[in-house]
Input
Amino acid sequence: MSKSIRRRDFLQSAGIAVVSLPGWAAGCALRSQLIAPHQAPRPQALLSPTVTPVAAPSIYFERFGVDQGLIKRTIDRGLGRGGDFCEVFVQHKVSHWVGLEDGEVNRAYTTIALGAGVRVLKGDATGYAYTEDLSETALGVAAATAAAVADGLALSRCGSLKAVAVPNAYPVAMPWSAVGIDQKLPILLQLEKLARARDSRVIKTSIFLGDDTSRILVTNSEGLLVEDDQPMAELFVGCVAEHKGKTETSGQSAASRDGITFFTPERVQNVAQEAVDFTTMLFDAGAPPVGELPVVLAAGTTGLLLHEAIGHGMEADFNRKGISIYANRIGQRIAREQVTIVDDGTNPRMRGSINIDDEGTPAQRTVLVENGILRSYLHDRVSAQHYKLSSTGSGRRESYKFPVLPRMRNTYMLNGPCKPGEIIASVKKGLYAELFWNGEVNIGAGDFTFYLKHGRLIEDGKLSAVVKDANLIGSGPKVLERIDMVADDLGFFSGTGYCGKDWQRVPVGFGLPTVRAGGISIGGRKT
Amino acid sequence: MTQNLLDKARTVVETALKRDAQAAQATVRRAHRGESAWRDGKLDRLRESTEVGLSITLYVDGRYSLNSTSDLRPEALGPFLDETIAATRALALDPHRKLPDPKRYAGRFTGDLKLYDELGVAAVNAEVRQRVARELEQALRAAPGATELISATTGAGNVVEENTMVCSNGMEASTRGTYFWIYADASVRDQGDRKPIGSWSAVVRKKAKLPSVESIAQEALRRALVARRSKSEKSDKYPCVVEAAVTPRLLGDLLGPLGGQAIQQKRSFLADKLGKKVGSDLLTITDDPLLPEGLSSTTFDGDGMSTMRRPIVERGVLKTFLLDNYYASKLGTEPTTGGASNLVLPKGKRDLAGLCAAMGKGILVTGFLGGNLNWATGTFSLGIRGQWVEGGKPVHAVSEMNLSGNAIELWSRLLELGNDPYLYSSCRCPSLRFDRLQFSGT
Output
């Protein structure tokens, strides 16, 4: 894996961002595939999180020898060449992954990541170094390396550290560290049994159950000391079905910042059944048409559209550099009155939720577009400083190996006044897009894509034949401008989705009510 | 240094065996990486780090797990192995999980693949990277058309890595390698709010093989400038040429379906194509792990098996699958390799301009965006950018178009290979000219 990632690193092209979901296709050399969502939390997800403070900061990492004295000395070394700001980010992440193939739970993977990243800022410029050795010497070397972004004498020292407790949007009764593999095996076997029972045409299933527990500590030269404990529960069912000599594959996933109680019997059943249904329905699916057609986006996974068409363009690093198609458009109309889009880190247990971002800023709900007017970008510390604003709590990173960037959390559109049926009925000939697998965007030019795994044709205002496997491509700003009907059925994506940017992957969520977009070019095969 | 890693890998394997694993494979990797980025006249970012990672594959009572950690404190290793061995015991028996037959370790290439550049490593440090990044930006600002620039980001970096592997049934190997890279991203003004970005980069094993900063900067800016005023053409079937630098996307899509897991799990449109035509007579793809200075060159694969050159497709006929030890056993056949390394295609006679001249009218694809290939059916649909070509010459930029079809149909329509293999990828493929393919636009 490291090889292919490195290769991608080298071939990086700025301003390209990708969403994808790794399912069974993780072996693919150049990218991974996305598998669709669980139709999860409904509007109650918008309520404010339970206030359960995370454990007292700085105790957790003392077992690794990292105490407040060491942190302060490291920050001072980071400031040693005149940097404006120094941050030490420490992470201990334990991930498990148990897999079923050919009817047996016959593989398990454990990954432990322990390390610390030191970031020094001098104006807009970033110095970054990390170490997996948490000794004073190694941390000192990392700090000295990052310090070199500045080139002078120390101007300040680390103030006294003040521990901050934050509300917890994802309390877990039993931490993953207390859950044995024996509790996971029956869930996998049950998923297999349910999938097989659903349809005899299913010939192969690949199923996995994953869990993460990421403990992060963020401290900085301004005296911040804050921790978060970020759990994740993931489930994926992939199916291969055969019928009359044809083979089809699809799948379904579910993910949440939660413990093992996430895998309720109902959820397990839904995921297994949808994985099978999404696969077998493809036997009756035709090739989508070629060329531009009006597109209606079904509620749910199709929120990928927002992520690609507008979300990345809102990330303030692209705007700070002036390279986003949305640069300098704050306060202007970019969509119709019905359109309000938020990026939210506070939805309880949702995949992209965070109690604090990776700079220690508390979670927020940021309104990007309000009744069609562009209101805010997504800021981390560096871009907020550039724009003389506050961070929106959007500074995220894949791990201690990376400096933060402005990133999305859960991105969704709020409900509008229309009814889903009314929207479908309004289209004479078009495409009803139901399940997207992956997408990508050129930030500057604004062209973006999403890959349709399945959907239906709309003929004379009615849903008709199922179609499968087509890339849709359009101009983000144009598509957003042309959204002219928004329904009242907001659905959320809570599958195993990742967003990739600058070679960092972070978990994200999204949501959308049924909407009518204008014409989008469909890469079908039927002329 | 490498000796220390080898000792570490040996210790981990011995410790696992003492704790009742019957067999084990350990890999230990250390990589030092440094990079600098320059943006709009000043330093934007510098990064430098050393990482060490340990992975251990455990075979316990006929069961299997793979585990990795960056927590290499001596006191952490015991509990890590205890926990992972206990978890492995809870799994189902899997008779196909075993270390490779030791005969697969034999014949490992012992010559010099030229993957490590000692002089290059000695010549590079943070200051040098910063200077090169700055020179790249200056070259961009001096390149033809630079008045259209909105923003420029440039960078330079390098990696020094060491890898060791130890298998408990008698395999030990160590390698070291270097990578050096430079890149430039140029963002330019266009109609309305559009700001196309042109990117160009190079990555090599030997520092001296890096192209000049001027060539990288000029190409990045040229790519941004020619992407301006793009439009979408009418949906139709058009002949096309795919530029060498973006061919890895098309070839990479074949690797998943060629893999043992896809074949055994019946998720591959290539499963019944061994010995059959999957492309035109011009299509020959060789997996060459022993390519000198190759970005993915290696003398042993992920299972520890010795690598060799292997034709994947020869004159359009599929010659092999990529079968690792496990899926080969499940399929009841012999393993080949756990994954492709460098993909090498033969060279043709003409350059990119020559291919476009031969095409006459059609689309020159210079970038892919999103899309996917259905592994089970081979149908694909990919977003593209490029140039509309008439009379063999680019006329205007195209965007918001898709290329779609079936992979076998695509490769059967291959008409010509260029003489310009892209050198900065492990996929050494020249530009490709195809007969009419389905494009969607307006």
In short: Residues 99 and 313 of chain B are 28 Å apart (CA to CA).
